[in-house]
Amino acid sequence: MKEDKGSHAYWKATLGLLTKILIIWFVVSFGAGILFADMLNNIKLGGYPLGFWFAHQGSIYIFIALIFYYAKKMGDIDRQFDVHED
Amino acid sequence: MDLQTTIYVVVGLSFALYIGIAIWARAGSTSEFYAAGGSVHPITNGMATAADWMSAASFISMAGLIANMGYGGGLFLMGWTGGYVLLAMLLAPYLRKFGKFTVPQFIGDRFYSKTASTIAVICLLTASTTYIIGQMTGVGVAFSRFLNVSSDTGIYIGQAIVFLYAVFGGMKGITYTQVAQYIVLIFAYTIPAVFISLQLTGNFLPQLGLGGTFSGTDMSLLAKLDQVVTDLGFGKYTTTTAGSTLNMFVYTMSLMIGTAGLPHVIMRFFTVPSVKDARSSAGWALIFIAILYTTAPAVAAMAKLNLHATVNTAVKAGGDLYATEASIKGDARPEWMKRWEKTGLLKWEDKNGDGRIQYYNDKTKNEAAKGKAEAAGWKGNELTVNADIIVMANPEIALLPNWVIALVAAGGLAAALSTAAGLLMAISSAVSHDLVKGVFNPNISEKNELLAGKIAMAVAIVISGYLGLNPPGFAAGTVALAFGIAASSLFPAIMMGIFSKKMNKEGAMAGMLAGLFVTLFYVFAHKGIFFIKGTEFLGLIGGANPFFGITPEAFGAIGALVNFAVAFLVDKFTKEPPEHIQHMVEAVRIPRGSKMVHGAH
């Protein structure tokens, strides 16, 4: 029974991390890059209108950061629940 | 050395490299053939995945598409990269833990059904075969434009090269050639971009140059581009969306989940040693992809502005774009324009007979631009530019040396060949492993399965070459179909297999079929049944883009929603999956106990 509880908590922690990352993933691409792009275009990042920057550059950089953040945090969760590979 | 010889030498050297790797990396076991022995370093796999993923279309056509679409082109950039976040978190590590060779095998085992695995094989074969036609034609195009041989000869040469390393090396040979191909294509793409960025903005990083100042003026490059194109009657570069905002939203989503669901990309993650490596490898893949994908929008905007500045001197000097003297004289047009006119990709037609080149949007709805053009005596746009020019002629426009032009030729071929090889691998493993071993002859020996894999690969090369030589009229629409199928059938099925312990075989199969059917129905309504001209049935569904104005290319996400909805509905009314399947799902969810990938059922 103890093991079942452990795997349940592990999966809960995993889903929590996924939710957090998917929210950021959604906000930078669909939010800043599409839905609110017009509004953000009033702000300038150097010569870039900000909404345009998110659609053509920024979201991609943030995607990379998200995957590495995920890989690191998942590693931490694996160890915390003692299910990591050796 | 003249240009033609230089191109032959550079392309020849790149081919010699691929063949050398093929000889070195021969596959001796099914594990090496299907999964490169499961021992590929995550960074190496990231690089191979990037080449696997970036096709002839990414390399040759994407920047041109973005140049034409402006801001709306961002849907390709976000869609084709955002999918890797989904792949890294939702699919890759779990499929790696599952530890088998193919995507249909996961679906068949998880949903305890040969039928489910066969449906997955059909989806995979349709998606990959349609996708590969585009790669083969891409090989032909690159050969005919750069090497002065016919596109048919080009395809034969391309087939022979792929045959050498894919048939003998399997996934192992493909992996290491893809690494070499990535290096060739990324240099080919970025070197001209660095030079054009330096020329236009003084900044050598295209990603920063795009946000920089247009040299010789006090305006930012994008503001200048916006001003020039709107003045000439085109849409404003930084704000023009692709259709409605809703369409852009759904289109981006479809490309993202389609990317995550494409089997030839997923199976690259079976080659790394551990679950941990599968996670980080996706990040590395995206870094290598992003080098090209963040450069592409810079190439797009810069080449576009450069082209306008080449034919209209007022772009750089300021002043009236419609002044007679501003448009350059046709006789004085640069050499590279004359060269590309011969290929038919660039056309100048002196409609008003003034001997000058007027390049503007003659179908504009912008009254101011229309009035100015009429007042200036312009009688229609005189310059037709094929989108592919943006990348292929870039080095010539920027007056770069011959070896850079040769490198671009080799890069285009590398992009097409690497993607074709990945697709061939997905096709042959589905045939030899999921059909021959999985369905027809489960007791086949490893040696014979390996042989079956090689034969399947050889047959697939012949068929794809044939389709490349005789593209069945529908080649243009097919990439949309591949993404639509991956998004609407494969992605949801795999995801539910991992994230829903209770999803049963009835639900998964009904979902896959429903998603596939809805997507095909919508695509075929616009483009004809199996893309046969004259069989469109738009009347039946109420005109073009009847579903909230969503275009057929963007429909995969809707198909995926249908898939999920049908699957959960059917699942509710049918019985739970057996106990041991639920245990299997639990085991897939944790990394511990991951083994080398193997083929046993």
Percent of sequence in beta strands of chain A: under 5%
Overall pLDDT score of chain A = 91
CATH homologous superfamily caption of the largest domain in chain B = Sodium/glucose cotransporter
Assembly state here? Answer: heterodimer
Give the strand line-up of the largest sheet of chain A.
Answer: 1-2
Count of the domains of chain B: 2
Topology order of chain B in helix (H) and strand (E) letters: HHHHHHHHHHHHHHHEHEHHHHHHHHH
Question: What structural class do helix, strand and pairing data of chain A support?
Answer: mainly alpha
CATH topology of the largest domain in chain B: Sodium/glucose cotransporter
- Average pLDDT metric of chain B: 87
Can you walk me through this structure?
The complex is a heterodimer of chains A (86) and B (601). Chain A is mostly helical. Helix content of chain A is 80%, strand content 5%. Chain A has helices at residues 2-35, 37-40, 50-80, and strands at residues 44-45, 48-49. In chain A, strands 1-2 form a two-stranded antiparallel sheet. In chain A, a hairpin with a 2-residue loop joins strand 1 (44-45) and strand 2 (48-49). Chain A is elongated. With 601 residues, chain B is mainly alpha-helical. Chain B folds into 2 domains: 26-294 and 399-489 and 578-589, Sodium/glucose cotransporter; 305-397, no CATH class. Helices cover 69% and strands 1% of the residues of chain B. Chain B has helices spanning 3-24, 30-35, 42-53, 56-69, 74-98, 103-110, 114-146, 151-201, 206-209, 221-231, 245-261, 263-266, 275-311, 314-317, 335-343, 367-375, 389-392, 394-397, 402-440, 446-469, 475-499, 505-527, 538-541, 556-572, 579-589, and strands at residues 346-348, 383-385. Chain B has a two-stranded antiparallel ribbon with strand order 1-2. At the A-B interface, helix 1, strand 2 and helix 3 of A face helix 5, helix 10, helix 11 and helix 13 of B.
